[in-house]
Amino acid sequence: MKGIFSIIASAAIAVAATSCSSNEWTIKGSIEGGEGHLLSLEAASASGWYCLDTLTLKSDNFNFSHPAPAYPDIYRLTIEGKSVYFAVDSIETVKLTSSLDKFGSEYTIEGNDASALIAEVDKKVAAVAVAKGEQAVATDEALKRELAQMIVANPSGLAAYYIINKKVGGTAIFSPLVKSDLRVIGAVANAYSEKRPNDPRTDYLKALYLSNRAAQSNIVNSDTLTVAQTHIFEISLPDVNGKNVSLVETASKGNVVLLNFTAMTADESPAFNVELNKIYSEYHSRGFEIYQVSVDDNEYAWRKAAKNLPWVSVYAGLNNSKCLVEYNVNVIPALYVIDRNGEIAERITDISKIKATVAKYL
Fold first, then answer.
1. Which of 44-53, 213-222, 321-330 is the least confident region?
2. Looking at the domain 236-359, which fold is it?
3. Torsion of CA 292, 146, 143, 159, to 10 degrees
4. Domain 17-111, what fold?
């Protein structure tokens, strides 16, 4: 759990560049029954996919190499109108195994985590499309929850970017015209802005989010991505006694509430809670409350750490992504001040300013 106070999850893809003599990446593998067929390696541009290289297979095996991209990118292999998408971080080798008749639907891919995640996304989407039809994919709540969980795990990753741009039958799974979908897009835009400021995709994501945000009545129209809404979203999760505690109810009592997403098992957590306790002890009598949401993956460890805390402490775990997506949580700790009117007044990005920020609203 060490490092979770910096970011919930990271791609953690290390490339040993010193061991490679060529500044190229490679994708290779085999396509059973592919001999004699044309295989295309394609890249994406603002206007669509374009061909980087082609190969008429002389056997089932293939091998493409290409100069390393300036930034991690997504590519695809296409044969007989069917495609497999994969990611390239730098100069790694990606391996693909499939067959001609099942290309794009049944395959194995290895070489980096992002490619494996993209393959998982496509298999989940394909399963829903086969079972319910392509038009049902964008409205399948179970699927979208699963995909949102994948985004929350690493919102600045290529898989997150791939998901929010994924279309089935011409329809986007996450549409910027749908409020809940736009919040997911906002989470990715915010993460890219923070973690990948120079990535060419960042400006696109920010423009996609901001251009659609003004149409949403419950979203603040400003030039920042830090707080995407003023009205709070409900969170109702179990405390250490197993009783669900409502954020809306907590905020409706006229208190100033500090909403904190945290991880009790992080190395920095004890010291962080000591500082919170100082603020809580000083301001609680003046109408100050803390609603702390833990995203620990170990419920027992959370319960042990939270049992003596004087404020509201509830457990979400890493698999409960709904509240994380709604509040654009990609960095831990995440802190929001909810004012006495029950609305988000401010997001605190500098933890050294928690006390001063809270004091403004008391």
1. 213-222
2. Glutaredoxin (3.40.30)
3. 120
4. Immunoglobulin-like (2.60.40)
CB environment 319-336: b (16+ within 10 A), e (fewer): ebbbbbbbbbbbbbbbbb
The pLDDT confidence band at residue 216, using thresholds 50, 70 and 90, is low
Q: Give the span between the Cα atoms of 224 and 210, in whole angstroms.
A: 9
pLDDT band, residue 30 (cuts 50/70/90): very high
E-assigned strand segments in 111-243 = 167-168, 171-172, 236-238
**Coil/strand/helix, residue 65:** strand
Helix/strand number for the chain, H first, E second? 10, 17
Per-residue pLDDT reduced to its tens digit, 243-299: 999 999 999 888 999 999 988 888 888 999 999 999 999 999 999 999 999 988 788
**Residue 310: cis peptide before it, omega within 30 degrees of 0:** no
Contact 239, 314 (CB under 8 A): yes
**Which residues of the chain form beta strands (DSSP E)?**
24-32, 38-45, 48-56, 61-67, 73-79, 82-88, 93-99, 107-110, 167-168, 171-172, 236-238, 244-246, 256-262, 288-294, 312-315, 334-338, 344-348
Q: Look at the alpha carbons of 292, 298, 301, 303 in this order and tell me if their dihedral is positive or negative.
A: positive
The first and second tokens of residue 167, run together, are 């279309």
The amino acid present at 54, given as its one-letter code, is T
> Which neighbouring-strand residues pair with 171?
168
Domain residue ranges of the chain, discontinuous segments joined by +: 17-111, 113-229, 236-359
